Amino acid sequence: MRRRWPGHGHGHRAAVAALLATADPDADLEGALADWRQFRRRKRTADIHWIDAFYQAYLTGILGLIAVAVLSSMVGDQILRADQLASVRDHGPGWIGVVAALAIAMGLRSGSRGGPLALERAEVRHVLLAPVDRTTALRTPAVKQLRFLAFVGLVVGGIAGDLASKRMSGGAVAWVVTGALAGATLVGLSVGSALVAGGVRLAKWAASLIGVVLVAAAGADGVGVISTSPTAPFGHLALWPLRFQLVGALAVVVAIVLVAVGMTTLGRVSLEAAERRSTLVGQLRFAATLQDLRTVIVLRRQLAMELPRLRPWVRLEVRGTGRLPVFTRGLRGILRWPAARVARLLLLAVVAGLCVRGIWSGTTPLIIGAGVAMFVAALDTVEPLAQEVDHPSLRDSSPIEAPAIHLRHVPVGMVGQLLVAGIAMGVALVPGGGQLPAAVAAVGLVPLALGGMGGALVSVLSGPPSAGGGWALAPPEAQGMRLAFRTAWPPGIAIIGVLPVLMARDAIEQGRTGPSGALPFVVLTAVLFSLVCGWVRVRDDIGAWFREQMEQANGKT
Prior knowledge:
The chain is mainly α. The chain contains 23 helices and no strands.
């Protein structure tokens, strides 16, 4: 019987493990390594067949074209005036450089924690501990990850360029090509920074410090405090159709250099960090496959090592233990948030505020960015309720019904969400282009908070989708529509909370006063949030009634 290569058809991890297990200590190690490298070359060509790769690219391209068509149809705004275009040329590179600074900062933080590669646990234990070159072993997964992210960057950048062409001069083709190049460059900057940080084992505090300095410098460049910043070349690259400056090519060169250096330092990655990351990333992928957003959030926090503070930011002294125990416990939990979570909420608030400014300036699709930012922020502010759902045995030991306890967690979440919305509206009120009128900001603040909070409540309490119960007999088409609705509905509620700002802008364009035009949608957001709170209170009763009806229909009672 012909002897097959150990682990043939099961991947290089099994091959290396079998090789190490059966190898003679006195055998020629160089010959074994040569056989292993030859196996890796064969496997590299057999991992993904070109038909499968083409099919994946085909699907991504189709989805990208659909996104372009839908978002482009939403942009009904006019080309910017000459003075507005001049302002974009002068201040745009600095503000766009903030995006590059954030990408580099996230890459540095990921690399300092053992990223950006997400290896399997067997690969860490067998391949990285084998007597083979680690850089060679890690190059293939690194190239795969970079290739996928670069393709996503090309698609997203092309979509952003198409949207920019609706309001900027320079031609649609030029904007799409430039946007695609900028998207791929942004991926190179982020992934390259992560690879270099992981290779040199950059300390976490150093990665955070460098990221803060880059973001601060880019922001100072945007407001005009300094003349340029390290990430300004990326801004010049993204605005090539408006004004071509060769300095923009520097961002492309830096991205290529970072990736090249990172590829040569792959073998220096920390094994302890890779081991820890492999365990969490595997669980994270499984949770994402099951559409379990709550588990994804918890695992991501563990991956980022977000631990509660041992000492609260402010010590809360409450006299008596019987007054608002749920609210008090939730508030104490918020006061122990780590600095990373507080910084993330501040960043999301700034993003939402900048999106609101863009909406007021006439870029309608930014309503999606503002709504999604508030929704993600609400997933943090609703953390006390999520913790209650994660520990049902403790909750069920209380004489109070579970829905009533859930409803009592809503006020503390609203406190945090109002703070985020307040910061967002504060950003929108800063003097400059796209400044929001104070009256509109006052009217839109509460709906902005209610929309994000309503979406987070639905997301946390719905949990992962289940095919049991009455849905087990539903056709696949109905199951797909249900899954799509469950995924899109929570952030959709948050987007509805941004509509008052958009309606106020339309009212002013039609000659009416802004706040009066937004009032109907303020009422709509309040009514929708009230319905969500009512659903929180009676959802268990509705579920029990539905199950009973299905059992009767199936003849089980």
